[in-house]
Amino acid sequence: MSAITKPEPLVEAAPAVRGASRRPKSSTLLKLVVTLALSAFVLRQAGVDALLQTLRAADWRWVALAISFAAVAMVINVARWQLMLHGQGADPSLASLIRLYLVGMFFNNVLPSRLGGDVVRAYGVSLMATTKTRSVAAVLMDRLVGAISVLVLGMAAILLSASRLPEIYLRITVGSFAIGLVALALMLYRNDALANLRSRVLLLSDVALLGFKVRPRLEAALDAMRSYSRSRDVVVKGFLISLVANGFSIVNLYLYARAVQAGVGLGDVATVAPFILAVGLLPISVNGIGTIELTFVVLFGALGVDQHVAIAVALLRRVALLVLSLAGGLLYAVRRFS
Q1: Is 84 helix (H, G, I), strand (E, B) or coil?
Q2: Among candidates 308, 318, 322, 313, which has minimal Cα distance to 268?
Q3: Which of 47, 73, 268, 316 lies at 20 to 30 Å from 228 by C-alpha?
């Protein structure tokens, strides 16, 4: 087990945060422009009146059930994250990780912040259980295993011919699955060829950005990630847990579609979910607003769903995320990271 390091006091970080918030960076302004432009575009294409009518006619019992599924999926995801931390020698409680996960959701879905949910999670764990490098490695492996599992469920839908998505999207799913497996193999297996590849990557990173040397930090992160090669059972268990969590998430999305009578099946949703997950990670709009709604319009449109109905599904999903995120905001206001 790795030694527990003493956390740096939050007071030292506060002045930097306040100073950074006085003048928005150009990247933040660009995200705001993209958010407004895409939101206006999708709303104009769908029609605000039709969208409001669809939401008024929604069966909110399905929405309530969907939110409960989202909460269950979140807890299972946290259990997977806890397992990845065990692989790094850390042993935080499930309750403390659920609190950090909710706080991360608050930063990710409510605040127009440059701090993403993963950054918040890694920072919070580094204060209570392990080093920053190992907490980041656990979050990255948690993300990788989660992405592969949702692709596996999408692949299952493809093999069962349960999806009506056009073939181009199905090919992208298969290709992404292959890339994910290669990335996982690079993390879990050790040999001379991989060692040479690692050395070349480190040589390319032998630079300094804003006064910080990149190579030592990248080398430490790679070493922490490769430590999972000595505990592959952790990764396998995490993958199995993730299958269950993402199964709940897919049903969650299906229930939103059911609430507005979108006319899509579970297989359709299973092949749409990986794309929504990927687009949600792109840092090109504020909290994914606009980009995710456009993704729903494109993918559900490929399934024959009207644009206003597709956006209604996206908005119901966002409402559920806001409910959980606001709970995280309350927890952050009471205790922050202490």
Answers
A1: helix
A2: 313
A3: 73
Which helix (DSSP H) or strand (DSSP E) does residue 111 occupy?
Answer: none
Reduced to 3 states (helix: H, G, I; strand: E, B; else coil), residue 23 is coil
Distances (CA, A) of 100 to 144, 288, 332: 19, 21, 9
The per-residue DSSP string of 148-201 comes to HHHHHHHHHHHHTT---S-HHHHHHHHHHHHHHHHHHHHHH---HHHHHHHHHH
| Six token digits for residue 297 | 């319009």
DSSP H or E segment with residue 209:
strand 208-209
- CA gap 220, 214 in Å, rounded: 10
Which residue, among 320, 260, 331, has the nearest Cα to 71 in the 3D structure?
320
Tell me 208's DSSP state: E
Query: Is pTM, for the whole model, over 0.85?
Result: no
Nearest to 121 by CA among 112, 110, 134, 111: 134
Helix boundaries (H) for 167-306: 167-188, 192-204, 214-226, 232-259, 266-281, 291-302
Query: Along the chain (338 residues), what's the average pLDDT of each consecutive run of 10 residues?
Result: 39 38 66 89 91 94 94 95 90 92 87 72 87 86 89 87 84 86 73 69 63 65 74 89 94 96 92 88 81 93 94 93 90 80
